[in-house]
Amino acid sequence: MARAGELAGFILFRRNVGDRTPVQIGEQNALLHSLAPDAVPLWVSLDQEGGRVARLGPPVVKLPPMRVLGDIDDPVLTQDAASLLGRQLGALGFNLDFAPVLDIDTNPGNPVIGDRSFSAQPAGVIRHARAFAAGLAEAGIASCGKHFPGHGDTVTDSHLTLPRLPHDRARLTQVELVPFASLAAELPCIMTAHVLFELFDSALPATLSPAIVTGLLRNELDFRGLIFSDDLHMKAVCETYGVPEAACLAIAAGCDQVLVCQSEADVFSAHEALIKRAESDARFAERLHVAAEHGRHHRSRYPARAHAGDAASLMQQLAETHSTALEERIRTALRP
């Protein structure tokens, strides 16, 4: 699929990289990039937020939960941390990091966001998400703000079930939507949430809702970047729709790229479902074409920089990023 130009890229998890050396990861990622059929690179991506959501270990910098950086409240430190991380990711051949989290931690009982959020206040989230995204951009890594329109106030985890939020327009405008609205013109990518927002769509979770993805994010907030779905294997969507149907619904809703993270067979079944839907629905075929071209345009801005076969160069780049110095700056900032 990748060689045929029918795959936008890859997302790697700890199961893909956890037992590999930096050189092996660089070689693996170079191989993945070599599958691109033309000059447009593929995404080789991961979730490297910091804290409990980090796929790579040493020598990649060990960042604390984003709440720690938010509490220190030094945007320069946050940007430096992301810049260092981005240089390391780039050296290893990654070109997209699914971070920063734009959710606001307004619910202490939230089982999935919590300290992944920079703050319980919109201003703090904006300040540090902007700095984090800028740091990644300095290193040539695409950032992806998540999870639109906001996952911070849910009481359930969308990996396990479909969360619902009953908030009215005033509440959403003053809280959940504020970081996305503030950063829409700056972020290259935004990821949707598998959360049902009753105000906008009483039937479909945000990822699958045209009213939310196209109406709210694309039209009202005027987001021109790339829209990713969250993983379609998450039970919030998979248990009701299955991966193939969810892929079609997400693209129809306005997503440009869909994540299918747990099963290779489902990658093929989702691809087949998209083709079949396009063959029978001209309007969907046009939407699919626009999504694919939008993805190619954005991928062209983030070329790969893997150093396959050049172990010395890779290790030198990682050494020059000085993870220990940045980690010590964070520890120093935390001291009373």
Written description of the protein model:
The protein is an alpha/beta fold. The chain has helices spanning 14-17, 22-34, 66-72, 75-92, 122-138, 169-174, 177-183, 210-220, 235-253, 264-280, 282-299, 311-320, 323-334, and strands at residues 9-12, 43-46, 48-50, 53-54, 96-97, 142-148, 164-165, 189-192, 196-197, 226-231, 257-259. The radius of gyration is 19 Å and the shape is globular. The model has no long low-confidence stretch (mean pLDDT 95). The protein has one domain: TIM Barrel (Alpha-Beta Barrel). The termini are far apart.
Quickly name the level 1 CATH class: Alpha Beta
* Number of individual domains: 1
CATH architecture: Alpha-Beta Barrel
Strand order of the largest sheet: 1-2-5-6-8-10-11
Classified in CATH, the superfamily is Glycoside hydrolase, family 3, N-terminal domain
Sheet with the most strands, sense and barrel status? 7 strands, parallel
**Low-confidence residue ranges:** none
Number of helices: 13
Overall radius of gyration: 19 Å
Shape: globular
Order of helices and strands: EHHEEEHHEHEEHHEEHEHEHHHH
Number of beta-strand segments: 11
Q: CATH topology, what is it called?
A: TIM Barrel
How much strand content do the residues show?
5-15%
